[in-house]
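Reminder to self: tokens first, then the designed residues, so the page reads top to bottom the way the pipeline ran.
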């Protein structure tokens, strides 16, 4: 009697809260931040394993880079009142941005040098900085790609969503990573210095990277972000 072949497991993991179990009650009470307001999606094959994030806010919900466009993710986003902004940190994170805009009627935000990669779409571009609301601002940090940018979220002592501009190394430190596809390494190093000049240990406490998240060994953020970044230079 032949055994019945097992069906492949197509279970899709849902997004996970980034800070839910790591943030102390004291830190939560010091601000209006709620620890389950930021979510990380599983790595997306469409963006070469990139990690996307979702900020649920009182003013507007922000999706950072494109997660997989599967039913699980769509249902999750709808359960949190959809997407107001889709911010693309770099050209490699575009994924199915057109489909996301069509599905959620969201505003796509991308640095002006990479907007040409989204033809026939309605996009908002920026040169150096763009403020989304009173807690979120995007910052141009070129180097990894011409339009590589980060999103800074001011709650919880400062959270930087770094795309592929800064990723964890094997020690879990935040570093720029030089690859064959790096657009301009010297500009990328200059962008790191710019972030260190702009922020302080008190205003930049966490980094949520857009790649290499396996090196975080179960955590979903890099803590002591400013100090770790400063130690690289």
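Designed residues (233 positions):
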């Amino acid at each position: 009697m032949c055994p019945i072949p097992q069906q492949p497991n197509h279970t899709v993991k849902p997004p996970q809260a980034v800070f839910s179990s790591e943030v102390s009650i004291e830190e939560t009470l010091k601000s209006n931040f709620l620890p389950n307001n930021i979510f990380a999606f599983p790595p997306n094959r469409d963006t070469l394993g990139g990690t996307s994030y979702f900020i649920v806010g009182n003013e507007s919900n922000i999706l950072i880079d494109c997660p997989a466009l599967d039913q699980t993710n769509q249902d999750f986003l709808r359960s949190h009142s959809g997407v107001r902004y889709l911010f693309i940190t770099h050209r490699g994170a575009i994924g199915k941005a057109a489909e996301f805009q069509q599905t959620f009627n969201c505003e796509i935000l991308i640095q002006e040098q990479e907007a040409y990669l989204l033809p026939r779409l309605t996009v908002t571009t920026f040169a150096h900085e763009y403020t989304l609301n009173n807690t979120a601002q995007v910052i141009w940090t070129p180097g990894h790609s011409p339009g590589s940018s980060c999103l800074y979220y001011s709650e919880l002592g400062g959270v930087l969503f770094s795309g592929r501009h800064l990723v964890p190394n094997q020690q879990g430190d935040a570093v720029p990573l030089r690859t064959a596809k790096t657009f301009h390494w010297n500009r990328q190093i200059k962008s790191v210095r710019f972030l260190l000049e702009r922020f302080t240990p008190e205003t930049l406490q966490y980094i949520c990277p857009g790649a290499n998240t396996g090196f975080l060994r179960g955590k979903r953020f890099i803590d002591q972000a400013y100090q770790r970044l400063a130690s690289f230079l």
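Residues 185-198 form the longest helix (14 residues).
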